[in-house]
């Protein structure tokens, strides 16, 4: 009986670790790599119609070239607010207006800025590792409680602890691989 609930618990652990990985991918997508990407505008919010709204809900975001992002703002009255939101976002991009289209030329990153971005990527990866380890700790606590509360044998407890550790090691390796890939992407000139 205890084994059946642990099958469900390992599925829950996998789901939570997948959530940590999805969050890491989102954070990595927001890092500027010197190439144009629509995802770099995801954190930018515009004061539209009395509330903060993501840019992709007030206009169409396109990447026509490797170093250019364009935003075709649907409401002419919001063009200035979108431009202001981009300037104040801290992305380091200077928007250029062309009617209702805002062009964002992406400048080259210098070596120092690239190194800073790799450090930020490392911090994001470490946060993800901590989240995965917290899920591991929860799983280990569940096995200890099950052993104390029920008739879960010591062998079964060791089996589940080994399963949880192998799952944790797999996700840590995935995080390290994603970090390595992102750092290479950032450092690529």
Automatic annotation (TrEMBL):
Gene Ontology BP annotations: cytoplasmic translational termination
Localization (cell): Cytoplasm
Molecular-function GO terms, alphabetical: ribosomal large subunit binding
Keywords assigned: Cytoplasm, Protein biosynthesis
Domain Ribosome recycling factor: 24-187
Region forming the signal peptide: none
Gene3D superfamilies: 3.30.1360.40, Ribosome-recycling factor
Coiled-coil residue spans: none
Role: Responsible for the release of ribosomes from messenger RNA at the termination of protein biosynthesis. May increase the efficiency of translation by recycling ribosomes from one round of translation to another.
Family membership: Belongs to the RRF family.
PANTHER family: MITOCHONDRIAL RIBOSOME RECYCLING FACTOR PSEUDO 1 (PTHR20982:SF3), RIBOSOME RECYCLING FACTOR (PTHR20982)
Protein name according to UniProt: Ribosome-recycling factor
Species annotation: Primorskyibacter flagellatus
Lineage: Bacteria, Pseudomonadati, Pseudomonadota, Alphaproteobacteria, Rhodobacterales
Gene this protein is translated from: frr
């Amino acid at each position: 009986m205890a084994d059946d609930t642990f099958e469900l618990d390992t599925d829950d652990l996998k789901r939570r670790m997948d959530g940590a990985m999805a969050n890491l991918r989102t954070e990595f997508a927001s890092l500027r790599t010197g190439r144009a990407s629509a995802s770099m505008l995801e954190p930018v919010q515009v004061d539209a119609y009395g509330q903060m709204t993501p840019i992709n809900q007030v206009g169409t975001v396109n990447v026509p070239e490797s170093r250019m992002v364009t935003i075709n703002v649907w409401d002419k009255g919001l063009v200035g607010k979108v431009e202001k939101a981009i300037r104040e976002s801290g992305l380091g991009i200077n928007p250029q207006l062309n009617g209702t289209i805002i062009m964002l030329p992406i400048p080259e990153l210098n070596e120092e800025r690239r190194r800073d971005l790799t450090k930020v990527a490392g911090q994001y990866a470490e946060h993800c590792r901590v989240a995965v380890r917290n899920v591991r700790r929860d799983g280990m606590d569940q096995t200890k409680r099950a052993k104390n509360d029920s008739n879960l044998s010591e062998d079964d407890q060791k089996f589940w602890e080994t399963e949880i550790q192998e799952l944790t090691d797999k996700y840590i390796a995935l995080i390290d691989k994603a970090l390595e890939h992102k750092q290479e992407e950032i450092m690529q000139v």
